[in-house]
Amino acid sequence: MDSLYFLIPIAILFIGLAVKLFFWAVNSGQYDDLETEGRRILFDDDESGVDVPEQDERDD
Amino acid sequence: MSSTACYHCGLPVPAGSNFSVRIGGVERPMCCPGCEAVAGAIVAGGLDNFYRYRDSRNERPEEVPPEDRWAAYDLAEVQRQYVRPFGDDDRQLASLLIGGISCAACVWLIEKHLGQLEGVDKVSVNANTQRAQVCFDPSAIRPSQLFAELARIGYRPAPATSANSEDLIQREQRAALRRLGVAGLGTMQVMMFAVALYFGASSGIETELQSYLRWVSLLVATPVVFFAARPFFSAAWRSLRGRSLSMDVPVSLAIGLAYVASFYATVFETGEVYFESISMFTFFLLLGRTVEMRARHRAGLASGGLAQLLPLTATKVEKGEENSVPVAALAAGDTILLRPGDTIPADGEVIEGESGVDESLLSGESAPRQKSPGSTVYAGSVNSDSSLLVRVTAAGQATRLSAIERLVERAQLEKPRQVALADRVAGWFVGLVLVAALTAFAFWWHLDAERAFWVALSVLVVTCPCALSLATPAAVAAATLRLQQIGLLVAAGNLLETLPRITRVVFDKTGTLTRGEPHITQIELLRDGWTEQRVKDCAAALESHSNHPLARAFRAWRGNLGASELRLHTGQGVEGVVDGERLRLGRADFAVQPTGAAAPEIPAAEGQWLLLADTEGPVAWIALGDSLRPSARGAVARLQAEGLHTELLSGDQSAEVARLAAAAGIRDFRAGASPEDKLAHLQQLQRRGDKVLMVGDGLNDVPVLSGADASVAMLSAADLAQSRADAILLNGDLMVLPDAIALARKCRRIVRQNLTWALGYNALALPLAVCGLVPPWAAAIGMSASSLIVVLNALRLSRSRVGKRPVGNLLPTGQVSSGLISRG
């Protein structure tokens, strides 16, 4: 059981990282439009020349 | 009616119509020149993949407006409202509100199409908020070209001037998501520790390890309480300062006290901890609120407000000179020129010219009003057939349009408010729990002072209002999502509580019960050798340059024949040469005028009759009318079968109202009602004790929509109507209404089950806790389990199959199955 004293803090560290990552994702607008982004990947199959505009980047 | 559907918008293609576009190598039928032009533009841009990607039909586009329609958006003072500098170089960023986005493929299409334009750097479209950000180089492209291109591929662009409220909404949504994320991640972790503690409690655990697990639980639960649950604390504080007890008060009390008790227990290694219950409870509550908030925002964002109904510029005539001026600069006394197709920017009096004016936006009347010198025109109506010179009598806030907006505000103030069931329960629940806790404390103080604090605390924790406060939001969130799936976007949270109580459904006519567009209902041939098809083709050719609303009925056959020497006779009809024959179409006396013959008698059948005549005399009668939505009759029948009164309330004065009411199966109808009349009638009904559901679409319906107990606007409705309604009907299928009412009844039933369960659980747990009989681990499990049961029960709503079977245990038996009509 001693390993718990070591593993749980690591787990908590990971949660901290996950929360930070999630905040970054929310703040950069990745969750602003839940319907479109999930399907966007399906659309650009045979068009390679034009690059896809990024989702809104002008965030504060 | 033909069985082929338009490939672009899905509406049926009328027989004899010859529009088509070659898409992906196959010739696809189109119903009208508008669809053909839009589909053609999409294919020409190499974006025909759009049709493979989309998963819903497009809106039927208006006919592509002329390029100069958008010229006003290039004016510097107008650009200031929606364009701002972006980045270091000369790039600019335009915020646009785009109407007609129906699915993710639309986003793809818009981004691709605009992205191909010279001078456009970057496009990002948000389907949720219906907004686009376009980064462009002003030296290479003008903003008006962006508008024109959007219109060309079938969308309705407008400048997004209310950017501030959008930012606010975005901030609110992101904050809610962050809170939800923290609560969710925290819950998962604390749950894991809690399982270890549960096992420890049953099979033994080292004290040291137990204390360690409690400390890490505390560490993880702390941000959940102080960050994620903060909105509940601030709402409870607001409610207390307002001297009322909303549901937020017991929620905060539960979270706060359970946290303090657990904290105390952890630090002093005594008692029991409830960190997992607090976290899970916070997470579920936040989830419910976030779903509700997103639905509300989506409906609110679609609206650009009243001002969008007015044009941005007007043509002012001063000393014989025509100048384009911003509408905001107009004042009473100015003279303005209105060309055919212009939207009238201010109230005024006609001083020169004669023309039909479409006032349907204000009055709901379908036929245009004939205006001549001396008559009054209103801001927001549309000049249809010829130019008018108008002296402005009222502009800006003084117009009748603004008066309607004020009427709306008043109606909203007077709207019957309804306190959420849970909030009504909350008041006495809090009181009861506090009294019980104090009593237990006082009682145990005399019996065993050591235990008094812990017993009082366990009373508070055991009676945690988790299940009680989750009962409503969980069910409402599930029902809201389900309604959105069947095509009703719920904007107001209390709609689901109001719907089951509705006793009367009031419909508007134009655009609600009907499609809102004139159709040819009947053709009566008066001459041998002519076919119905030839009559339609000739009429379409004659009307091809007309802005008159009735001309839309002939759109489908336009281009089959060509016409020349077209002349418009205001208020009477059109004249032109088709295939070498001089034809007239319009009022009977006008059509036969050149022959000198007497006009034939108008057929007795309903509808608006136009006469087609050549130089020898009458050729055919054409009846125009607005046709019922296919779902109207079935929906009305089902509503009536469920014991609801139905009523038709229209601003239209014609006999059409009675005809359509009969066709839809509605017995009560009222014609010629102004917006004020409609509101007065509604309030009279409400005084009589009726709970009214109003279904409408026009601007003239907005006051009633705002004043009704519940209201539903059509997706094609005026923006203002959409923003003031409690819900928006997304697909125009009226059958959704009875389904929604059935679902709302089911939702109410589930809320009641949840409340019964929650109160029952508390009623059982409270006496046991007061007697000091509840072991702490049982309290913790009971708390979590009662919340989970409530949430799972609510989730049944999201799978419910509405409309397929009778959902009517609240109705007298026998009434239920009789009127159910299966959906086609």
Automatic annotation (TrEMBL), chain A:
It holds the Pfam family FixS. The keyword Membrane applies. Keywords: Membrane, Transmembrane, Transmembrane helix. It comes from the Bacteria. The chain crosses the membrane at residues 6-26. PANTHER family: FIXS PROTEIN. This is Cbb3-type cytochrome oxidase assembly protein CcoS. It comes from Microbulbifer thermotolerans.
